[in-house]
């Protein structure tokens, strides 16, 4: 069970890579706020995995692979940045901004608990 957080982190980072780099409307992040939220969620899950997963017993190389995956996702998001709008045109503005506020609040809470 102690490796579960590491596996979840791998899945979340892989999903961030797919959403940031996909050209398919089904998988791609449709707005800049979604790309920011996906990246922020990846960082939060990686922080929890860093704290709870015994990286010394499975090898620190896997942590570097995870960080490299996050870097690939950020690079893909940067390459798509100018082609996506700030907010999704098919959703209300309050929904996009509200989701971002909740994500930032959760990230701040995790950071406070982890490093506070």
């Amino acid at each position: 069970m102690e490796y579960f957080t590491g596996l979840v982190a791998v899945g979340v980072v892989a999903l961030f890579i797919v959403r940031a780099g996909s050209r398919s409307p089904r998988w791609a992040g449709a707005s800049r706020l979604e790309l920011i939220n996906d990246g922020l969620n990846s960082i939060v899950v990686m922080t929890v995995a860093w704290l709870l997963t015994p990286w010394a017993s499975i090898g620190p190389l896997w942590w570097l692979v995870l960080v490299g995956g996050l870097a690939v996702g950020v690079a893909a998001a940067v390459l798509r940045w100018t082609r996506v709008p700030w907010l999704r045109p098919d959703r209300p503005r309050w929904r996009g901004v509200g989701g971002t506020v909740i994500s930032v609040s959760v990230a701040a809470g995790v950071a406070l608990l982890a490093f506070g």
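The longest helix spans residues 93-115. DSSP finds five helices and no strands in the chain.
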